Amino acid sequence: MSERLTRLKEWLQEKTGQACQLTPASSDASFRRYFRIELKQGSRIVMDAPPEQEDCRPFIHVASLLQRAGLNTPEIVAQNLDEGFLLLGDLGNTTYLDVLNPRSVERLYADALAALIGIQAGVETNSAELPAYDEALLQAELNLFKDWYLEKHCGVTLSVEQQAVWQEVCTSLISSALEQPMVCVHRDYHSRNLMHIEEGHNPGILDFQDAVIGPVTYDLVSLLRDCYISWPRQQVEDWVDGFYAQTIQAGIVDADKVSGKQFLRWFDLMGVQRHLKAIGIFSRLLHRDNKEAYMQDIPRTLVYVLDVSQRSPELADFYQLLLSLTLPDHVS
C-alpha cells in the first residue's frame, strides 16, 4: 500500500503541479479508497481504485451519462486508468444521512426524487451501453442472502422443503422486477451516496459506477426504504404515490397500463429483493472483508423484509420460513 500511495502522490504532483497531502475522505464498502487534497484552486477528491479489483471506466462512463442528463456528479479532473487513479471535483462531506430529520426530509427527498426522475427520463436506455439488470444478476444478488447471511453468518442450512420456499420467493421477486418499465438504475441511491449541497444543485450524486438498465422502482426503494434510516410506512407510501404521478408526467410509466396499486406492489417486492441482497452484502463485508460496521444495519433491513412479506400473499410461506429460523437480527 505504501508503494501505491507513493505512485499516487507522484501522479497527483504531476497533474496539479504541487505536493499533495492526502486526507481520508470517506469509507467505502468496496476496494476503492477516497482522499481529499487541498489545491490552490480548492479541494479535490482522489479515487484510488486498484485495477485488479476495481475498474474506473464504468464510473467515467456513467458520470458522463448523468452529467448530460443534468445531474450533479463529481467533475472528472484527471484520470490514470492504468493505475486506477481519478482526480475528481469535491461535492463536500455532508451526506443526506447527516442532515435528514423529520423537519428536513420533505425538502431533501423532493430534491432527490426530482433528481431520480432526471436519471430515469434523461438517460436513454437503448444507447446508454449499460448492463441489463437481468434474471441472472437478480438471482445472484438474492443468493447473497442465502450464502452469506443464512449459511455463513447464521449457520443455517435450508432443508429440501425450505429450499423450495426460497426458490419460490426468488421466482416471485425476479418476475415482479422484470415486468416493470426499464430505466437507468443508479443501483445504490440512498442517503450515504447523496450529498447535501448548501449552495448549488442538490443533491450531489456519488457511487454510481454499478448503474444498469433495470426496474423503475429499484432506486426509489433504495431511497425511501433506506438501510440506514427509516420512515413511517404511510409516509413512505405517500412518497411512492407522488413519485408514481411524476413518472406518468415524465412519460416513464403509462397510467393506462400501470395503476398506482400495481406500482406500489412492484415497489414492495423490489424492496424485498434489494434488502435481502443488502443483508447478504453486509454479512459478506464482515466475514470476507473484516468490515463489521454494516452489521448494525441488518436489523432495520430485516424489518423491511418481514413487514412486506407479512403483507404479501405471494410471500406468506417465506414469511413463515423467516420466523421459523429465529434469526439473530430479528427485532419484533
What does this structure look like?
The protein has 332 residues and is α+β, with helices and mostly antiparallel strands. The chain has 2 domains: 2-89, Phosphorylase Kinase, domain 1; 96-324, Alpha-Beta Complex (Aminoglycoside 3'-phosphotransferase, Chain: A, domain 2), CATH 3.90.1200. It has helices at 2-16, 57-68, 96-99, 105-122, 135-153, 160-178, 218-224, 233-249, 260-287, 298-311, 316-324; strands at residues 23-26, 33-39, 42-48, 76-80, 85-89, 182-185, 194-195, 204-205, 212-215. The strands form 3 sheets. The protein has a 5-stranded antiparallel β-sheet with strand order 1-2-3-5-4, covered by helices on one side. A two-stranded antiparallel sheet has the order 6-9. A two-stranded antiparallel ribbon has the order 7-8. A hairpin with a 2-residue loop joins strand 2 and strand 3 (42-48). Helix 5 crosses helix 9 (260-287), helix 8 packs across helix 9 and helix 10 (298-311) packs across helix 11. The longest helix is centred in the C-terminal third of the chain and has 28 residues, at 260-287.
